[in-house]
TrEMBL record:
Organism: Pristionchus entomophagus
GO CC field: M band
InterPro entries for the chain: Ig-like_dom, Ig-like_dom_sf, Ig-like_fold, Ig_I-set, Striated_Muscle_Regulatory
Entry keyword set: Repeat
Pfam (any one): I-set
Coiled coil spans: none
Protein name: Ig-like domain-containing protein
């Protein structure tokens, strides 16, 4: 098989999700890996599967596999840098998860762009939810975004979810200089999460 020649790779972004009951799930989609061989680590200690750490994998088709680690009843001492190492016949790779503490904000869906006023206003919309108060910081090409009378951040309650908010970046009269990678980092007292998208005009 050709795929055996390729080293294993991460597909998309590793994801951390948490439930209101305090369970945290780490997941990453990988390609060209033999999932049974994967190992999970916290710092430099290999984790063993037990009632606190439940490992699983599933086949997403197209040579992609999802590797998952469920952390039950997540507690502060379990915070830290988690890593999953995954292997192919002739290579290895790893994904890192920085699990801060309990329940970081979570996102409802992917960030997307909405146009208003015939394209005169472009809105980047991020939908997040959190059981604690959260705030959002916006970055443009990884530097803190400077707001102007043309570029504004707006926060409003999410009409579809009682714990949710919409974090909007509104750009009026978009110009060439607005083309960039925008990142929204949403944080609460227990952790943070981020989404980003590239804005470019035809």
């Amino acid at each position: 098989d050709l795929w055996q020649m390729a080293p294993p790779a991460i597909y998309g972004e590793p994801k951390i999700t948490s439930t209101p009951e305090g369970h945290v799930t780490l997941e990453v989609v990988v390609t060209n890996a033999v999932p049974e061989k994967s190992t999970w680590w916290l710092g430099d200690k290999e984790l063993e599967a037990n009632e606190s750490f439940i490992f699983s994998h599933s086949d997403e088709g197209g040579g992609r596999k999802t590797l998952k680690c469920e952390i039950k009843d997540f507690d502060k001492p379990m915070a830290g840098e988690y890593k999953v190492k995954f292997f192919s016949a002739d290579g290895e790779n790893h994904a890192t998860f920085n699990v801060v503490a309990g329940n970081a904000p979570d996102f409802h869906d992917k960030p997307h762009i909405v146009q208003r006023d015939g394209g005169n206003i472009i809105v980047i919309k991020v939908r997040a939810k959190s059981h604690l108060e959260m705030k959002a910081d916006w970055f443009k090409d990884d530097k803190p975004l400077k707001f102007t009378d043309r570029v504004k951040a707006v926060v409003k309650k999410d009409d579809k979810d009682k714990d949710g908010f919409q974090f909007l970046l509104e750009i009026t009269g978009p110009q060439k200089e607005d083309e960039a990678k925008y990142k929204c980092v949403v944080k609460n007292s227990e952790g943070q999460n981020q989404q980003s998208l590239n804005l470019c005009f035809e």
